[in-house]
Amino acid sequence: MSELPTLPTTFAELLPIVTVPLERRPDGDVVSSRAVHDPATGQVIGLAPVHGAEEVHEAVAVAKDIQPEWASWSHAERSAVLNRAADAVDAVAEPLAELLSRETGKPLNGPNARFEVGACSAWLRAAASLEVPEETVVDDGETYATLTWRPVGIVGAIGPWNWPMMISIWQIAPALRMGNAVILKPSENTTLSVRALGWVLNQVLPAGVLTVVPGEREVGAVIAGHPDIRKVMFTGSTATGRRIVEASAGNLKRLTLELGGNDAGIVLSDLFDDASDERRREIAETLFWGAFINTGQTCAALKRLYVPDAIYDEVCDALLSVAREVPMGVGLEEENLLGPLQNPAQFDIVDRLVEDAKASGARVLCGGFPDRDAPGNFYPTTLVADIDGDAALVTEEQFGPVLPIIRYTDLDVAVAEANRLEAGLGASVWSADAVAAREVAARLEAGTVWINNHGAVDPRIPFGGVKGSGYGLEFGVEGLKAVAVAQVING
Questions:
Q1: 220 lies in the same domain as 279
Q2: Where is the active site (predicted)?
Q3: Whole domain around residue 18: which residue ranges?
């Protein structure tokens, strides 16, 4: 494999590649653009292009021409390209992380910007390493039938703003690995990050197998309904997921939908049994980061925590001690681990839900009173105790740095409360007894249930939601099969 091409080594070198004042189409028409603001400071980073339906059609036409050739490559050849793409991401990791921090507000350190860029290369390598061998279904001397997995053709990928690079790779890597071409629409809130990632990948990918088409809802709607796009992968809200289902119905498009979550965690009364002070601190930190990873802006973050009355105050105090020590601020300042909300609309949602909780009589342990005159979309780290299970902060997904802690006395009731919402992405059980924890986990209606952890995804382990949180699996061999079609040869 040849050496990597020359790639930008600084943010100053990377930025002009992805942000331009005007972008002209071949016919000379000017593509519209919009200003991109740093959510931590409000400053303008640059201009991002806004494309439309015509650019989607152009990308599909190119993809239709190149995809059959790409599909003809062996799995080993495509895997080698994905590994080289991972090398390219690693080579530009620091500029990518700085751009990501500036556009999303997430800090460089902690489970944030550098972590996300590192996950991009890790998922590329994981997809490259997986095997999807031909299966012999029947071989009894009379019948010989095999099952193989072939490319879908063109995959449309529509990503969110909270983990824009990482989730784009979750969509891109398996689709390319299985021989598909990809048309990728980033969130309009995080266009520059995904354009930068796409540009880096395209320095080593065959031309035309990956095209990033930035735009607004029109672009997503065209991708969902386009007859030549055979599969759509979407991560985002349940409401948008429903619109994609409707738009795709005309041509029976295959779908993978990872939709909104309102993940419940259930603490059992033995959580701290025989635990040393050090172990208690470890448990509290793991609980905290299960909820506050990426400043709470994660679909599979812990969104509501049910704690038994016997250790309720103990758990609240342990979480409070961690929350007070985790610094929040501008992401480019190395000491910070929590940042602002990515956009003002999300700030308003979080603010509304906390104000509702306060008005209902819930007890704010920390945070809850943002400085509305300060620059940036910062909402303070907030823990809310003694809150009713019917409060909006519990029943609606807050998607921010706020955790409601609900007291319970009957485990069966807690399980029922965890299950009663339409969300079913993830859940967790926290206990010193692994057997007891797994018994409770089996009763929870969620695609993934973690034991003494929350939100820890692994490229080898399938991941997906149930109920209103979507359907279809990502990651692992099942994730590769989800971007392919089965073919049985019988005879």
A1: no
A2: 258
A3: 11-259+467-490
